[in-house]
Fold this protein.
Amino acid sequence: MSHSKIKRSSTAVVAAGALCLSAALFTGARNANAQSPTHIQNARSPIATAVWAGNLLFISGTAPSPVTPADRAKGTAAVYGDTKTQTVSVLGKIEATLKEQGLTMGDVVMMHVYLVGDPANQGKMDFAGMNAGFTQFFGTDAQPNKPARTTLQIAALVGGGALVEIDAVAAKPAK
């Protein structure tokens, strides 16, 4: 089996494992609290921004905002910045979603980080750049909690130019 087939196969196994873990968490949360899930809708998207299941908030994959928006009149594509810039953008959006739901970054218990190979890094993911953005939100004096995390390099994301997408699971603290 070639190296590329092994890499794709192992990535698929990791992704399948992450999906199984999410399903198990969702099922456990639902059984622990018989309430129906609550969907936080986004009118511009076919998927929910987030879903409450019991005391767990599942935040959908979040992509960065462009640093410079596309200009259709000039025919220029959006510019998203490097991996660190994109990570900070994504985590800022996740933080805003958490705040809307009465949570903080300290309540995040699991994250899945999907990185596209950066052309400026010979097509390899910029793990150091992602961590440089990540550590601005986790493990700081102001917010010392660190979530469990899986980081994967993937072939592409839906949005052209985006190098980072992150989904998260947060747990509402017990009262």
